[in-house]
Amino acid sequence: MKEKIIVALDVSTVDEALSLSSQLSDHVGGFKLGFEFFYSTLASLMLDPMVDAVTSLHKARQLFEQLAGRVFLDVKFEDIPETVKKAARTLARFRPKFINLHAAGGKKMMLAAKEGLIEAGLGDIPVLAVTVLTSLDFQALLEIGVCSSYGNMSEGDGVEEIRAHVITRAMLAKKCGLAGVIASAQEAPFIRRMCGDDFLIVTPGIRTAWATWAGSADQARILTPQLAIEGGSDYLVIGRPIVDTPESEGGPVATVKRIVAELSQSY
């Protein structure tokens, strides 16, 4: 079950990422690196004093050597097709476990991303489409015009309309030949039904009842690890419940072991 867990290294320094990856490498299936890590590292390389920047560069290279083949590049492409194609071709050099983009970018953009990865000639790199961010609820989708208000729906939670958007985007991603999607566990059973067993579902927004230190204020559509796997999720992206575990609770490794144990008891 440990292979199903991808730890979100949403940290702002290479030192933090190295420490967490060293602690957790033997206990999980992979690591996600995204905006917070990449932008803070880039700022360090470009703006810090030269000696500090060179040190950061060496540590960043050490991190990627340590995580070879296990990195989920959470870059969330959403731009014109040619730009995405070139960016994907470049990022293929990292040989990531997964790379993602927003399904909202459309069919041409998704196909361009795949084309860029193929042109890189570095093997099959699975592309995942973000359907609807797990931080968005129905009200947020109304505000940005993704969902429409009719009747009294705006007074409810809009679960069915959110689900319809997620499934539509998942099916488009499958049609474009993508490996799978990033989606809330709440929609996973419906995606599985519509897209089949060979379509990957990678799920963020995972929370446990006992990891009270993590909070969930910025997540709208969440589930526990057990319910996510039962619903059809293939991988669970877990950040704060793991990385923010206080030492008084055993630290990050203790949380991972507890999650794995609970998953193992369920299957």
TrEMBL record:
Pathway(s): Pyrimidine metabolism; UMP biosynthesis via de novo pathway; UMP from orotate: step 2/2
Ranges that cross the membrane: none
Domain Orotidine 5'-phosphate decarboxylase: start-end pairs: 4-259
Binding-site residues, substrate: D10, K32, T134, R207, Q219, G239, R240
Gene Ontology MF terms in the entry: orotidine-5'-phosphate decarboxylase activity
Annotated CDD domains: OMP_decarboxylase_like
One Gene Ontology CC term in the entry: cytosol
Membrane listed as a keyword: no
Keywords from the named record: Decarboxylase, Lyase, Pyrimidine biosynthesis
Pfam families: OMPdecase
InterPro entries: Aldolase_TIM, OMPdecase, OMPdecase_AS, OMPdeCOase_dom, RibuloseP-bd_barrel
Record-listed E.C. numbers: 4.1.1.23
Active site residues per record: D74, K76, D79
Top-level EC class: lyase
Annotated family: Belongs to the OMP decarboxylase family.
Function: Catalyzes the decarboxylation of orotidine 5'-monophosphate (OMP) to uridine 5'-monophosphate (UMP).
PANTHER family recorded: OROTIDINE 5'-PHOSPHATE DECARBOXYLASE
Protein name, entry field: Orotidine 5'-phosphate decarboxylase
Species the sequence originates in: Candidatus Doudnabacteria bacterium RIFCSPHIGHO2_01_FULL_50_11
